């Protein structure tokens, strides 16, 4: 068959299909509505856009028959717009694509029926026409998917931004409608603050086995989170169910349990205050009660500078810069200021520990017993 004859068959078939376009559109709308009822979507713009999208899709399919697999045939803008509306209204991509495949099946049925009515020559061209239609349909699906995913990501970002802003206003004591937070504030709460690689994923993994409500927002490089429930959360239970594979480099601080809105705020303040001390030991997290005094000291620049000057700087006069004396003091305080236990922990003689402690006292010009708290705080800072 000559090229001109083939073009004529395609034009005749397209003309027949265009004459039946209202019928085709009605059939597609019926099939599409069977996938998911559009009346459940409150957005009138989406309802109106659905009919325009069906009309544009039919024209696009008929153009594919007329032009063949023409790479210059772009997906109609109405279909991109409808994909964005679907994402904004919470209609999942799987539902959107099911609608398109349902519509494509309807068009294919009409094409086959008209080709059979047009005689054997049109039937012989049917395979080529359906192949061209399938090619442009693939491009259409790719465009709709891209548009929906982009808009869904934007919508998720807006929702996160809204929740973050609402959380900050609640923390600041502003009177806002906390029902929009999606997290009940009238129960018991435990706040967490995390920083580092995959912090949000790590917090979700911590929350998963605890059967608690989770509120999670991002603030700059940190993740703020709360675990809420009707009963108080036992921190021993949290530690017992802590995932063993938390990301390396994760800094995690935990406040103290609190009740109601006031407890929700206080637990968060405690977790934020404890965060600078996270990651300084082998423990997976630092708890506010363990560093409460240190967090207060850290806010006083004069006190921090003075403690370092009075208790740490003199030790730096040693040949190793004071490293051995500091390690000895840390072990001494960790063992409850017991020289024998310190010697056992460091695997040296008790006399060696006694000599080192005397050296410390000489350097700071006072007995350790008179400044033990200050010296321990200086070491921990």
Q: How much is the average pLDDT?
A: 84
The string of secondary-structure elements, in order, is HHHHHHEHEEHEEHEHHHHHH
Number of strands: 6
Shape: elongated
> Which spans of ≥5 residues are poorly predicted at pLDDT below 50?
none
**Which secondary-structure class do the elements indicate?**
alpha+beta
Euclidean distance between termini CA atoms: 88 Å
User: In percent, how helical is the residue content?
Assistant: 55-70%
The profile of the biggest β sheet is: 6 strands, mixed
Using the CA coordinates, give the radius of gyration.
35 Å
Q: Beta-sheet strand percentage?
A: 5-15%
3D structure, described in words:
The protein contains 15 helices and six strands. The protein has 381 residues and is an alpha+beta fold. Strands 1, 2, 3, 4, 5 and 6 form a six-stranded mixed beta sheet that branches. The model has no long low-confidence stretch (mean pLDDT 84).
